[in-house]
Amino acid sequence: MMGKRVGKPSRKQKGDEILRILIVEDEKRLAETLVQIMTEHKYTADAVFDGESGFDYAMSGIYDVIVLDVMLPKRDGFSVVREMRRQRNATPVLMLTARDEIPDKVTGLDCGADDYLTKPFSPDELMARIRALSRRQGEVISNELTFGDLTLSLSAYSLQCGAKSVHLGFKEFEVLRLLMTNSSMVIPKEDLLVKVWGTESNAEDNNVEVYISFLRKKIAFLGSHVSIIAVRKIGYRLEE
Ligand code: CA
Fold first, then answer.
1. In the predicted structure, residue 205 carries a pLDDT above the cut 80
2. Which end of the chain is more exposed for a tag (fewer CB within 10 A), N or C?
3. Looking at residues 56-80, what average pLDDT do you find?
4. How far is the CA of 25 from the centre of ligand 1 (A)?
5. Nearest 5 degrees, angle CA 5-CA 112-CA 201?
6. How far apart are alpha carbons 208 and 193 in whole angstroms?
7. Is the pTM of this model over 0.90?
8. Which residues pair with 147 in a beta bridge?
């Protein structure tokens, strides 16, 4: 056990940007580096080095985001996240996978992880993912969103229509999740950009267009009656 402990854990408050991060990683040097990165960003971080401790700490419910390695002593990361979700713990989980282990990524998302990052990764990328996940916290009440004949699984990142389903990439998922959460409204492009790409990113408007076109292709592939309507100069909304 290491990391900064400052008295009693405090819940995140409105306007309070201090996030509490749990790091579950058995490579101690990497764990230490991650704690250091979090601390530099003024976050509070605790690190544990095996899956059993990781599960116990995760279930405390005090963390905003959990960074979870896959290969761990005592209990692997998939089993940790699967059991968390089974016990209705919805804390966002970012899984760390070894390089090019594609099946790991799929398994991770299937068992309820929210995102994954392949080692080695840059601190900037890690922080961007953590910020995106922390914004999502508290919204995962139901495990799925529906609109028309479409069902979006919030744990498996999949989109379903009838018997067909497709996996969505992280950004596709985030864009569609925002559209489905606010399905009666036109979502301004700038909102999508800020919420999905973050305020510090260099993404431009046409990134949104690219991901909207990916989503349209997937929705068409599913044979759905839902379409994403572009409202000129404003943004997008869903229509049946
Ligand atoms: Ca490991």
1. no
2. N
3. 92
4. 6
5. 70
6. 7
7. no
8. 150
